[in-house]
Amino acid sequence: MSILTKLRCITVDVTGTLMAYKGELGDYYCMAAKSAGLPCPDYKRVHDGFKIAYTEMAKKHPCFGHAEKIPNIVWWKTCVRNSFVKAGYDFDEETFEKIFRRIYSTFGSSAPYTVFADSQPFLRWLRSQGVTVGIVSNAEYRYRDVILPALGLHEGSEWDFGVFSGLEGVEKPDPRIYKIALERAGNIAPEEALHIGDSMRKDYVPAKSIGMHALLLDRFKTPDAEDWKKSGATVLPDLVAAQEWLTSDRLAI
Predict the structure, then answer these.
(1) Beta bridge partners of 161
(2) Contact 217, 19 (CB under 8 A)
(3) The whole model's pTM is what?
(4) How far apart are CA 160 and CA 165, in angstroms?
(5) DSSP code for 231
(6) Angle made by CA atoms 8, 12, 13, in degrees to the nearest 5
(7) What is the pLDDT along the chain (253 residues), one digit of tens a residue?
(8) Nearest-CA neighbor of 242 among 197, 184, 180?
């Protein structure tokens, strides 16, 4: 009997699991600056500035400001402005508005992302086997409404429900986001569900903590993968391997 026959629901992470970023953050900030008639900002400074600004915003106003009902565009405007300031760039309001609008619209489209070739076939295969498929992601509403559909990953054909931190007010690694997923799937028991992701801290550990099964993908050969395996985690290179693992009669969860 294969592992798949024991499962009623499989939840999947998005970034690093179903899709990845194309290029560097600096590429998009550069295009935005050029659209306002300015030279490209320094890539490293912008990247480092963004990391600091995003971390601070996520800590001060988690889940994209969900609890405080901060409009999505306002949350991101503050984050992008702080990114530039920390990188040493201080634009006047009119110039910043032009740059920000370009950045916001770009990251609200499919342009900066690429979907892995095995993502759509894997999700469709799961649903054809009668498995309920859920998306669990630390992301805001544009992933659900715009980005995933634009990448060919549609609710109703590739996935059945989504749990997005910006819409729920709970984010990984908080185990509650996985409990919401089980409820959304029809109050499925955790032992009948599996989560697939690419982070030990955000995906594997919290899913296992509530009794779900879990496996990790190592698409980019991260050095941490060896430690993941030593800790007992199932680590696979891609979703093709995940499908083989799920249908193998020789394995047990």
Answers:
(1) 134
(2) no
(3) 0.94
(4) 17
(5) T
(6) 160
(7) 899 999 999 999 999 999 999 999 999 999 999 999 999 999 999 999 999 999 999 999 999 999 999 999 999 999 999 999 999 999 999 999 999 999 999 999 999 999 999 999 999 999 999 999 999 999 999 999 999 999 999 999 999 999 999 999 999 999 999 999 999 999 999 999 999 999 999 999 999 999 999 999 999 999 999 999 999 999 999 999 999 999 997 555 6
(8) 197
